[in-house]
Design brief:
single chain, 245 residues, mainly alpha, Dbl Homology Domain, Chain A, 9 helices, 0% strand
Length: 245
Amino acid sequence: LWVNQEDGVEEGTSDVQNGHLDPSADCLCLGRTVQNRDQMRANVINEIMSTERHYIKHLKDICEGYLKQCRKRRDMFSDEQLKIIFGNIEDIYRFQMGFVRDLEKQYNNEDPHLSEIGPCFLEHQDGFWIYSEYCNNHLDACMELSKLMKDSRYQHFFEACRLLQQMIDIAIDGFLLTPVQKICKYPLQLAELLKYTAQDHSDYRYVAAALAVMRNVTLQINERKRRLENIDKIAQWQASVLDWE
């Protein structure tokens, strides 16, 4: 076996010296690499578009399936409670509708890898800051829901809302978590998209810029949330001191 391998090496060396190897082999490998990268980029683009469409459906279900029905039950919910539970979810829904419309315009259905979606993120970058208010309020929303769910009336009401809207089998707190998860997912999706975008692609610099923007948005949202939590802790401590005095 060792002798055969050596003979093979000698033959291969002889072929190279005699110029018998096909120079198109390297071109073929390069072509396959480009094709694979384009396919991976198409997969990422399709995943982004799919998740955006599903997300819009989630937001619509929250606004029409839950919030709209809650507003009809003044005997169960006050305006203050609804503001705590749902925050600015309607503002987020309106913003995302416009964002998705622009994404759809940039989406190349025939050749997804040619889609240029980076500019959409840059054009809408200021709008993503509305998530800050929602994320900062999310913990209070969970606490308010937890209190209400101790009453079976609210359990039955929210379940009836879900069934009436023909929503998937997820509790309301799961739906309300979706925007928090979504804003955190954008940098991950854009990083994956950039990974499979060639530097000579018309979308490359826009995707790179969009990634930097969305990383900054999520970073600042997390920082604001942390500061608010610290302020709340200080306020609770001051209140406890005053009560003690």
